[in-house]
Amino acid sequence: MQANLTELRRLTAHAESRRTDTGIPRVAMVQGSIPEHMLAAVYDPMVNLILTGSKTITVGDRTLRYDPATYFVMSVDLPAVGKVHAAESGEPYLAVSLTLEPTIVTSLLADLPKPAGGELYRPGFSVAPVTDELLDAWVRMLRLMERPGDIRALAPAYEREILYRVFQGPHGWMLRDIAAPGTALSRVSVTIQWIRENFTRPLRVEALADMAALSVSAFHRHFKAVTSLSPLQYQKRIRLLHARSLLIAGQGNATAVAFEVGYESATQFSREYSRFFGLPPSRDSLQIVSRADLVVA
């Protein structure tokens, strides 16, 4: 296992302190100290592997920490707050990720035996112990950066192998459930996509429950289990994260941004923003921009 980690660290040594393209579809890497505001975001479904250091990620009231002994799976789009940590030796944080493509997951699922039923209410994100087989697949995938001419022919096979190893792990059910129609996770995923695309609109839980073909009470339980948030809390996080990005980009003052992301009261927006990010909107965005200017200077 250590030899594989050493090889992966060598292959990704040129990663930057932001999402860095590898030239391989859906595969990215990152290294170093990442500003915390960049780690408060809506995360796409992914498999995330830490190579050096560790990371904590908080979704709702649930916080997970993972390091080179584990990997992280997120099966649905989730608003989360992350923080990265250097290794105890001082080496910078280093990680790679594979964004999940539902059509590829579904195609692989068709070639696998159908598993026995599992728990009824399960989260859409978790951490699992890494295996040599999974690391082997990642090594083969990332070596393609040194042979870009092979990417088109070989990357799809290595992507399937990585996903297959995740399928074999303790959280393989996450991939199965997002690919299999009719599961609670796939039904909740449909409503999550609707909220993401319509977060400025008023939210009616009854309409979302109908969309998921669940009773209102069952929908609430499944949504909370998957996201660690209620539907209204999920919408609020999406609104606040989008508002922060607008403020940092200078696309309006706090009042204008509040109304743009769907709030009807600027006072309520400021109160909820301060509760979530720790500072009022204007002070928070000014602080982030000032720190960025210092780094550039």
Automatic annotation (TrEMBL):
Q: Where is the signal peptide?
A: none
- Which keywords does this chain's UniProt record carry? Transcription, Transcription regulation
Pfam families xrefs: AraC_N (PF06719), HTH_18 (PF12833)
Record's SMART domains? HTH_ARAC (SM00342)
Q: Which residues form the HTH araC/xylS-type domain?
A: 189-287
Q: What PROSITE patterns does this protein map onto? A: HTH_ARAC_FAMILY_2 (PS01124)
Domain of life of the organism encoding this protein: Bacteria
Task: Kindly give the InterPro entries that the UniProt entry links to this protein.
Answer: Homeodomain-like_sf, HTH_AraC, Tscrpt_reg_HTH_AraC_N
Name-wise, this protein is AraC family transcriptional regulator
